[in-house]
Amino acid sequence: MSIYPSQYPPKNPERIQLYTMPTPNGRKASVALEVMGLAYEAHRIDIMAGDQHDEEYVRINPNAKIPTIIDPDGPDGEPIALMESGAILLYLAEKSGRCLPRDARLRWEAIQWLMFQSAGVGPMFGQFGHFFKFARGKTTDAYGEDRYAKETERLLEVLDRRLDGRDYLVGQELSVADIATVPWIDALDFYRGKKRVNFDSYSRVQAWVERCRKVPGFEIGYQVGSA
Q: What's the pTM?
């Protein structure tokens, strides 16, 4: 059996196959591929239509989420399928030799801030967006919105302090930590929630987002998987 989902046959099987949609997590992988200069072929997974639950797709991503990649040239020369955006970022960084510092101390700092996004920023911003935009008027009180708005503000404050005197989260160049986090900051626009979490108070975060999005390839990666 081919490793590739039958409904998404690769036109360029020698390239990394990317299965995604331009959500915050989906954009992590597409931005990384663009910024790191890796050849890839993109396939749109329409999560609103439920494509992620197709049996063939679940075969390569048991969690039925996006993004997923298949690298035909895996670590042992054999194809490898990977899910979870954080793991994909680390894999692509090692493969390309980019966006993950070689210095051991800085490398672990980058991994640390990548975990901060994966365990903190992503889940908490997502919950804030759910309660602020999608559950508005569907709950009996404002507890959920208030709880996650407060936590989102706390995380923005952590990032703002970290960026004091820094252009990027780690070192002097864009890293996987920045690639992972910026799309979630931009998700606040989608949720129309910036005012709710006092985003204008975090000037360093604002400048950092603008700086990252000017890195060659970043904006192209943002559009991958669009309709």
A: 0.97
